[in-house]
Amino acid sequence: MARIKAHVPIFTSVFITLLSIVGVGIIFRIHSGAIIDTVVINSLKDNCKAQAVTFSMRLRDQMLVLESDAHFFEQIDMDNFDEVKKTLAAFGKEKIFGTIGVADRNGHSIDCNGIEGDVKYFDFFKKAMSGKTVTCCSEFSDFIYWDALIVASPIMKDGKACGVIYGFFTKDELEAIIEGFSGDTSRASILLSSDGTILARSKNSALITDRIVNFFDLGTSWGENGKENLVSIKKKLENNETSPIPYQTGTKKRLAIMTPIGIHDWYYAIIIHRSAITSVIDSLSYNVIVIEVILCLAFSLLILSVFYLLKSNDSMNKMNEKYRIATKQNQTIVFDLDYLKEKIEFNGDTEFIFGEQVASLQGSGIGRLWRLIHPDDLTLLHPLRNIDSVSMSTMNREFRIRCFDGNYYWFKLIGTFVKDTSGKTTRLVGNGSNVDDVVNKERILKQKAENDALTGLLNKGTFKEKVEKVLENAKDDDLYAFYIIDLDNFKQVNDSMGHIIGDKVLSDTAQKLCVVFSDKDFVGRIGGDEFTAFLKLTTDGKRFGDKIIREKASLICNRLNETYANGNLKVNVSASVGIALYPEHGLKYDDLYVNADSALYLSKNSGRNQFHIFNTVL
User: Residue 398 — pLDDT band, cuts 50, 70, 90?
Assistant: First the structure.
């Protein structure tokens, strides 16, 4: 009898749990339709918002691309249209926009296909000339593009816009972007204006055909069971909120989720068959009894297990150990900084930072943590130390910490400031995570943006930027050599053997130049078959400067002199080299470039496969 009494709480808990599950199951079966309908609609709302945000971010990314490209044109004379053409041609085939073009201050434009025009009366040109990067939707009746989305950025010089660089997304390109976002053939995605005009759509003819050009022509009746009219539907869009819009096309019921994207009063919409939702409801109703039985058994076992686990302190210790291991693997620490007590508490494994488990730091002990933060990042964390400077509600910072192994690692701190009833900040609660891998990946992406895609060498803009930075900090006794290397017969390789062999020649050239020059030198590709190098001589190297400079040039000619074959076709490729010296031949990048280029042409005209150093006689 005593044993039975001891187990009464267990049996009671199991009985109450089973009764609760059965009751919830009955209620769920009754209301399953409404529940699933709500869940699916909320899921579609989130999905629609995500796709809309992704689309909007794609456009903003293109703005950043154009702003970056605009810097290339800031260095040239925008009033010299031939120079504008030449600079645009150096970009090669545009891979991001359907078309990219440049216009001078008068609206005279040329695109990457070599087509010239006049854009001075168009909105995107006027707005961009005001100094801001903009997006515009325009229809050109007397131009070569139709129904295009334009992203335009000003080309600035001396604080004023001297021209505009712009990119086009045509209707087909917009539809390709949307198609990439949707990916699910059971639903359709569309981009539309506030008046219902469909600007782009995913390829799902079962839901929306190309014949329909306006969203409001899709339905024969609107609302649940046709209880709404088009006037009320259109008012929903005026609220600028994400809205579910039920409608019928004949006898087929459908649901559209619409959300604004924040550009030109455009909306993004996902359309789905209502039958997709009802089929889920029917399937759930059929299987709900089986699920209830399984849940009853599972929860019964769970309650029994939990009852005995809670009686064991050992189990709790094991759970804490699992948490410690997990935080150690993720290198994440939860913290609570109490400003009033001058105390910070840690929850998680702090060994990777301090070399030991630290539960809290207080008073002067907090200085131990500040000493580990990189000196350059201390200002970012000023609010952590000075409560009077806190004016924000949340904090999101990336900074470096010197961990126990002696190395600095990037950490991301995310926290929320807790205030008392008077509004005074009293605590900061949050977590810090090791994001060193993410930051390093971003650094790699930046390197990719600075390097030529084919050869891996510095691209033209990055090469110039790095050389100019060295020249700005140069001393009077420094000696530098500026090389321009142009491949002989490279056009013959492309014309007779094709661009695959041509690309191999360029890649081989890059590798050989990297062998000739050291890591401290700069090597770049500034044109199709034109390369540059910037030799920085050390203090000891300056004594033999002329000898070293000539030896490098001779090595270039020797190593790049090679015969390439493709079947029976053979072409000998060599290199002509021109050299200018700092400070003898110029103090600025442009001076060195011009003089090295003059020496290069002397090498070309003297029979090729040789080098010359610039002199005033040239």
Answer: confident
